[in-house]
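Hi there,

I know you've been waiting on this one. I reran it after we fixed the sequence typo, so this is the corrected version. Both the input and the resulting structure follow.
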Amino acid sequence: MNAQTPLLEIEGLSVAYRTSRGRVDAVRGVSLSVAPGETVAIVGESGSGKSTTVHAVIRLLPGAAEIASGAIRFEGTDLATAPSAALRAVRGRRIGFVPQDPTVSLNPVQRIGTQVAEVLRVHGLADRQDAAERAVQALERAGLPDAALRARQYPHELSGGMRQRVLIAIAIAADPQLIIADEPTSALDVTVQRQILDHLDELKRERGASLLLITHDLGIAADRADRIVVMSQGRIVEEGTPERVLLAPEHPYTRQLIAAAPGLNAHHEPVLAAASTQVVLRGRPGDPFAARDAAERPAAAHPVLEVDALVKEFAVPGTGGAVQRAVDGVGFRIERGRTLALVGESGSGKTTTARLALRLTDPTSGTVRLDGADVTALRGSELRQLRRRIQLVQQNPYAALNPRLTIEQIISDPLIAYRLGDRALRRARAAELVDVVALPSSVLQRKPSELSGGQRQRVAIARALAISPELVVLDEPVSALDVSIQHQILTLLSTIQREFGLSYLFISHDLAVVRQIAHAVGVMQRGRIVESGTAQEIFDNPRTDYTSTLLDAIPGGLRITL
């Protein structure tokens, strides 16, 4: 293969899905190529066809999908028509794949090291002992700390970001010629994100590998890609170098994406100052779904949430009683109608702190106060009532929604659990909330498997709002969303907060997002808050080297002013 011959060439690819409502054309006549050593980034909104395009390359489409037409040539072989044996020889060995969701991609009953080593053994690249050693090396290359220890653990013992790095280790273990990465760093903090992308760049340089990158983060595309391909409604609408696409976009859709990207726009206005929208939730007082009427709530003398000296220790298996201190003396307060963001690297203790605040797990020591009342030791019915007032939006929309229920049932489920409203009122509430989160009413009778990742996360947000909580804990709520929907959701959350006095505890690794949504920021490192202040203070005048490192790692060095 000479330097002018593409490693991967997709020509006229069309992919369709068979659904209960008929045929859906997801990819329409897509043609693109990836040269040896080149990085091509495909960007676009959820449902634009970008993930379906790359899944078609390795024939990992769901059963309801079919390649209707087109060719997918890899090293001269058409993978669109290749027999199963030829595909098995290519997958993992010549083409590495990093899927978006580690929860459904890792085997919950196999140790991490075994799963990384499997690709080496399946392709005959190593025996059992050598594969185990090389698996640890791959985990180290993917940026996983204490790789030898992690190799002996199971997926549930790792954080979401750590699990994502395991998927990256599996993809690079056999040193493939092409790496297809479907949102490979969406669950990672910015410093580890930079490490992973730096490593992928190094792999390209050393071995002449190519990277086909699917991302909703235009900052990453701007920093890392040799070419950017913009997709909308199953078609390619624009293609070119980062400088050409981002500095001189020709298509209106591309300009729309750039305008919504917080990492690219130096003058992006915080959404917490955004104008009011036309969306109207059921108001207070008199909200039939609220835990308490506005008149019953205490005055603003008390923060809505206050935690003090929180400590959480976990036993470390196989160490004879040693413990790991995941949260170490954390304290903060959230005023009514305000947003506190906790930021930090994966494993810094952000999510564990949020679980302690929600009373989903008990602290080793410390206190949690809601509206001035100590709720640290609540049990039974009192704890159940507390959870009416605090709701959670989880990081992973794939695992957070019951696959057997319709979207209407998922959103109505909290209302049923607390016996709120009759059937007609609950149906009206569900219809109202899908509109609030910018979904069409047609999704109400669909199931999660029929929605994209971004659409599923919007359903999760709608469900959290169903019973009109006072505090919402948002654990990486927009990490799975493309930039335009991301900005819509952040604007929506800000509008609801301003109009109804909601408070947010916002967990995120994306500092560009945090700058838009947060009034105050706490920076966490190794279980402690090492710096806190207003968002402006943290971003403009960081006081610790760790905070400066986080800020320096934000992707999107190519800044755009429209």
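Quick highlight: Confidence is low (pLDDT under 50) at residues 273-285, 558-562.

Best,
R. S.
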